[in-house]
Amino acid sequence: MIKDSYIKTVIEPHKIKSVEPIKFTSSEERAEILEKAGLNTFLIPADDVLIDLLTDSGTSAMSSRQWAGILDGDESYAGSRSFFRMEAMIKKIMGFEYIIPTHQGRAAEKILFSIVGGEGKVIPNNTHFDTTRANVEFSGAEAIDCLTAEGKNPEIIADFKGNMDVARLEQVIQEHGVENIPLVMVTVTNNSGGGQPVSMANIKQVRAICDKYKLPLFLDACRFAENAYFIKLREDGYADKTPMEIAQEMFSYADGATMSAKKDALVNIGGFLAMNNDELATECRNLLIITEGFPTYGGLAGRDLEAIAQGLEEVLDEDYLHYRIRSTTYLGNKLTELGIPILQPPGGHAIYLDAKRFAPHIVPEKYAAQSIVCALYLDGGIRAVEIGSVMFGKKGKDGEFIAPPMELVRLAIPRRVYTQSHIDYVIEVVNHVFQRRDTLKGLNIVYESPMLRHFTARFEYAD
Fold first, then answer.
1. Same domain? 305 vs 368
2. Which of 13, 108, 251, 386 could form a disulfide with 258 if both were Cys (CB 3.0 to 4.6 A apart)?
3. 324 plus 307 within the same structural domain
4. Could you tell me the sign of the dihedral formed by the alpha carbons of 83, 130, 158, 160, in that order?
């Protein structure tokens, strides 16, 4: 980063070498497109999206060195040198003995929970993300969130709102029995909790609880580098440590990890399982061979393995992380200045609009956050995603609607893709929707799948 005190502007730590055209549409065209998609932005063709903030997963712009690595990728079926390069980089950062590649993070989750999950089992987490929860529940196990109380309040400003409530964790262990808890998981950063970081102190506390009950600790490491940089910025004793050193300490307290490389490995596809337990690793590899591929490619081309290895090196660059966190904060601060309610403080990979305060006239069972998502597309061609009652709402035993603690709209920022002018455009569109928020209508679901319904659900406006 630039050290000169007279320079205030945070610039991109890269030059642009290739560009992709953006399609502009009229509001009339967008209304027709959205209606055809059943008011679900997941179902809108990407060519009809102006600014795509649906996800930061697999949407990164890769570097020239990653593209060069793709050309040099070794496509050998077994024993690819590209796998060994990726394996070496993961071991350098995370220190785990066994590295199992998969085509993306949810495949790693599927393999892991197919083996350790099952009826009667319980998986505690600070907050499970959607695919993690789905894979836990698909196995027959129960996914329980143990997020700290301040993490459930969008208005509170605190340094580490992604932390696990360790008292709640211990309560879950005692209530369900150690024998029914195959592992404890911590998601860094806490995506469903607003992209909020987890402190090193909290990871140590969770480790202590796991040691007390002899339970393994796994990290959902999708955004480990962003979490490491937040620790550097906010936690005592880490200001002079490098992101690499902080990441290495984080993983030293864990027994394993799942990772979607589509986030902090800066690639468009890929993931992996990592662990120290040789027996579990053997079971995972056996399932991998059935479902993904040979253990040294795991559903990926050699070129993808090469890109992951390079991306894991680049993501821990402090100049990159400084820009990444500051640019997301820029969006959050500008929206806050306009009086637009967001989850505070700004997270690492996304800004989360607080739908309960943004559109308080829409009750949770009418999906306020999804209504805002639709309005952002209609008004400016921006694609966002709902993280609220569509994604996590459910029905109780008596059929009553149970809403999640927060109703959020996530504006996920792809890595190295958009410039400040794109983000300024997003600010204008969000503000325009906010100014007309009283006109927003609730929604009804007219179609939903039994799991992960937000991907394919279709809606209509409520009367």
1. no
2. 108
3. no
4. negative
